[in-house]
Amino acid sequence: MRPSTTAEKQAKLEARNLVKHFGLAGSTVKALDGFSLTAMDNEFVALVGPSGCGKSTFLRMVAGLTDLEEGTILVDGKPVSGPGPDRGMVFQSYTLFPWLTVLDNVIFPLRKSELTSQEREEVAMGYLEAVGLTDFAKAYPAQLSGGMRQRVAIARAFAARPSILLMDEPFGALDAQTRGMMQELLCEVWEQHRVTVVFVTHDVEEAVLLSDRIYCMSARPGRVKEEIPVPMPRPRRAGLETTSEFIAIRKRVMELLRSEIEANGTPRPS
Amino acid sequence: MQLSVKRNRTGPVADAGRPSASVRSGLLPLREEISPRAYAVASVSLVIVTLAAWIFVTQRGLVDPIFLPGPKAIWDAAVSMIRDGTLWTDMVASVYRIMVGWALSTIAAVPLGLLIGNFRLFEALFDIPIALTRYMPVVALIPLTILWIGVGDTQKFMIIFLGTFVQEVLMIADNVKSVPKDMINVAYTFGYSKWEVLWRVILPYSLPGILDTFRLTIGWAWTYLVVAELVAANTGLGYRIMAAQRYLATDVIFLGIVIIGILGMITDLSLKFLYRRLFPWMKEGD
């Protein structure tokens, strides 16, 4: 989709030695300590770790919604300052605009573009088609199920054409079946519309299924404990979970996570 | 007068997750719908029973008409007041005062509520003044307002304004604050500026809540108006009630009360209608 003259060597996102504190119940907690992460152009990176390890804090820092304390975040070699349309975000909570129809929600980010209103509608319909919701274009979010709302949110995030898409446990609030469907759908949409993704989750299986690389984080204060490549071919489809390769990677990630949780007792929720 | 807007209209709307028939049966299922017919019957039955009791008690002469006149007496009072034009004059005077007084309060309260709800600096700035004035009984200010500006319409506007303004500001600030933080954040990540977020996200999201606030504050405006008219006025429904009391014209007192009730109900119903028209997207919300 995007011109790939700079090839895969170019780091799309580079975070170096991030440190972040925040106040929690009157005391100051170190959320991130020497956190570094790299995502290549059009790479799908998953970030897993015990709850409260600062995964979401990191995403918000990349999005420009939370300030840096120490360290740098570079996007295309340029430091991040404040939110911008080059970094889109999908939240776990429902963030569709309830007064807008499904179609108008997807058009919302396109209003900042040069397109004519007819072109915007066409582009938006294209993304709605990708998530299988063209029939619901005129519906309001309140009329949709939780899974459908997140599909619209994903269509909207892709429609904005960010160069990095940040996803903060987007399927965390969904039931198991819906979540499985959403994972497949995201896989498909992403394979069609390549973009650099940083995907935060606490679901190990989800991370292995979707990503090219998994960053395992330590418990608070969060830093990257290990980087695990997921060299499974694409397109990935159902049935992948039963391959021995998948099982081996999942086992490795689970072990890392378990040792973190056991070493630190029960972590407080983030 | 102030029934909840958000209640589903009669009949079940969402079928998902309905409990078993045994839980829903009977006339008192806990937090569940009842049949539309039962609802319709229940909604008029109290009114009918009250009217019937009233007619019975007054027809039989069980109560002195000076304390409780019958429907006929009130009807006669209405006819004579319509004939001599006083009913119309009083209604127009009261409605005019309400509209202007409430509009003045709202014109000032909406921008200030938006500022306080959106910007911490304004919240801090008005924190102490609001805390000092919000529980001040407006009725106690009536003598002072008369001293300052007399007993004309302006004094009525002022009482309505003083009675509604501070609470209205706080309620609008709350309406504005109800916007989820991530909904604002998502707009930022699409490259919207803070003023665009204010205009395109915060305002449309809080509009239904603001209209609800209007409904409530118009109700208060009625109360304050009538109080102001009872104390000092020479037209208006409150004045008519006060004047009638001097001549023990209880039928006119009741007529005044009924008219105020009906006008309040009309206001409330039309705002509810407007609400449904303006915010179709609120339907089937959870």
Q: What does this protein look like?
A:
- The complex is a heterodimer of chains A (270) and B (286).
- With 270 residues, chain A is of the alpha/beta class.
- Chain A contains 7 helices and 10 strands.
- In chain A, strand 7, helix 5 and strand 8 (196-200) form a beta-alpha-beta unit.
- The longest helix of chain A is centred in the C-terminal third of the chain and has 21 residues, at 244-264.
- Chain B is mainly alpha-helical.
- Chain B has helices at residues 21-24, 36-59, 71-83, 86-118, 120-133, 142-149, 153-177, 181-189, 194-231, 237-246, 250-278.
- In chain B, 28% of the residues are buried.
- The model of chain B is unreliable at 1-15 (pLDDT under 50).
- Classes of the chains: A alpha/beta (270), B mainly alpha (286).
- At the A-B interface, strand 6 of A face helix 8 and helix 9 of B.
Q: Mind telling me the CATH class of chain A?
A: Alpha Beta
Please tell me the CATH architecture of the largest domain in chain B by its name: Orthogonal Bundle
| Helix-strand category of chain A | alpha/beta
Give me the side-by-side strand order of the main sheet of chain A.
6-7-8-3-9-10
CA-based shape of chain B: flat
Indicate how many domains the architecture of chain B comprises.
2
Query: What is the percentage of strand-forming residues of chain A?
Result: 15-25%
**CATH fold name of the largest domain in chain B:** MetI-like fold
Radius of gyration of chain A, whole Å: 18 Å
Structural class of chain B: mainly alpha
CATH architecture of chain A: 3-Layer(aba) Sandwich
* Highest CATH level, the class of the largest domain in chain B: Mainly Alpha
Within CATH, the superfamily of the largest domain in chain B carries the name MetI-like
Q: Which regions of chain B have little confidence, pLDDT < 50, spanning 5+ residues?
A: 1-15
Helix count of chain A?
Answer: 7
The biggest sheet of chain B amounts to: none
Number of helices of chain B: 11
Helical residues, percent of chain A = 25-40%
Largest interface comes to: A-B, 25 and 23 residues
Elements of chain B, N to C (H/E): HHHHHHHHHHH
